[in-house]
Write a structure and sequence with these properties.
Keywords: Membrane, Transmembrane, Transmembrane helix. The chain has ten helices and 17 strands. By secondary structure, it is an alpha+beta fold. It has two domains: 59 residues; 320 residues, LCP protein (Aminopeptidase).
């Protein structure tokens, strides 16, 4: 009898052990199920944001650059032939007809000479200058990304305001100063958007993003860093930006994988005592952008949620009218678009020394033709074989 009792107790213990293991297994399955559900929710939210971002941009793609058409019927751009019979968005230039690509999306990216989080300026003349200005163009027809760098010293009409914030008229000044007139937030950005749009013959700009340039380090590291070749202007040790000293033993021609503050120094630094240093910095920023875009595309392929994570992370340092939904949509689109060094353009022109600072004067004809190249398609007349 005692032996039988022992066997019963062992069976009960076995049952208890099996029951505990089963419970543990069920717990693991439940945890895995919860994680799977969370992953599905993230994916559903991502695609929902992608869809809504696409719809939001579709509503913005209605305007056409009217000043391009007006210039075609005036003497503003040499070589143009007037034709009042053309449809809106179409122009004739040097005997050829061009139609505006109504599906392109154009964004103004601004790097502001400020550090830390974005704050409203109490002084309406201290909204921060736009030291970096780029137009990013997404062309769904050609499936490519084009980027146009704008010299911060470009002389053009900008809106000015008095110390009380009242509109004081327009004056010709460096385009970087358009952002300085304002509180450093939406007003400053909208003032710059208007100045850039007018400079580009009324080109529609579908969104803007202004970043305090110190956050570049965060964005750079989020995509895994960016490789660049050090130019002559950055060779040596010891640089100061906004009163802070940086020391890097860089030599001209070195191939560097930029990390942290290195990226900030690379795109921000310029020696104002050297002639045309803004132009040199723009070229450097151009090479950085090429590496960054390709690195960002690779990083997003590894983590589709990266655009949303990064958007949230940099929001305190950014002023933008691009929503999170729109940012997710744009990132998804950019993955399938081509981009290389030939897709980055800078404006042609010449530099003159003003009373105090350098002034860049663009070549109007070259700018007009650049806009035609990126934003227009040549229209083949009816009955004419293409390429003839």
């Amino acid at each position: 009898m005692a032996g039988m009792e022992q066997k019963k107790r062992k069976k009960k213990r076995r049952k208890k052990k099996m029951s505990g293991a089963a419970k543990f297994g069920i717990g693991v399955l439940i945890a895995a199920g919860i994680l799977l559900m969370l992953a599905l929710i993230v994916l559903i939210a991502y695609f929902w944001m992608d869809s809504h971002g696409k719809s939001a941009f579709a509503e913005k793609q209605e305007a056409v650059p009217e000043q391009m058409q007006q210039a075609a019927s005036s003497s503003d751009v040499s070589g143009n032939d007037a034709d009042d019979a053309l449809e809106a968005g179409s122009i004739r230039y040097n005997g050829k007809t061009y139609a505006y690509k109504s599906d392109v999306l154009t964004f103004l990216c601004m790097g502001i000479d400020k550090t830390g989080e974005v704050k409203a300026s109490k002084d309406l003349y201290r909204g921060g200058q736009a030291d970096a200005l780029f137009l990013a163009v997404l062309d769904p027809g050609d499936k490519k990304i084009n980027i146009i760098g704008i010299n911060r010293d470009t002389m053009t009409e900008i809106k000015t305001f008095d110390p009380n914030g009242l509109y004081a008229g327009k004056e010709v000044a460096q385009i970087a100063l358009a952002h300085a007139y304002g509180e450093g937030l939406e007003e400053s950005c909208e003032n710059t958007v208007e100045a850039v749009s007018n400079l580009f013959y009324g080109l529609p700009i579908h969104g803007y993003c202004a970043l305090n340039m110190s956050v570049i380090s965060t964005i750079n590291d989020a995509v895994g860093g960016v490789e660049v070749t050090i130019p002559e202007s950055l060779a040596g040790v010891g640089m100061k930006i906004n009163g802070k000293g940086y020391g890097y033993n860089w030599s001209a021609g070195d191939r560097i994988h930029l990390q942290g503050e290195e990226a900030y120094v690379y795109i921000k630094y310029r020696d104002t005592k050297v002639a045309q240093s803004a132009d040199e910095r723009l070229i450097r920023q151009k090479t950085y952008l090429q590496g960054f875009v390709n690195q960002a595309k690779a990083a997003v392929k590894q983590d589709m949620t990266l655009p949303l994570k990064l958007y949230t992370q940099v929001l305190p340092y950014m002023v933008t009218d691009i929503s999170a939904e729109e940012a997710v949509y744009l990132a998804g689109q950019a993955l399938s678009y081509s981009f290389d060094e030939n897709d980055i353009y800078t404006m042609e022109g010449h530099v003159e020394m003003g009373e105090v600072f350098e002034e860049f004067y663009q070549d109007d004809t070259a700018l007009y033709e650049l806009i035609l190249k990126i934003f227009y398609d040549e229209v083949t007349p009816p009955g004419t074989a293409s390429g003839s």
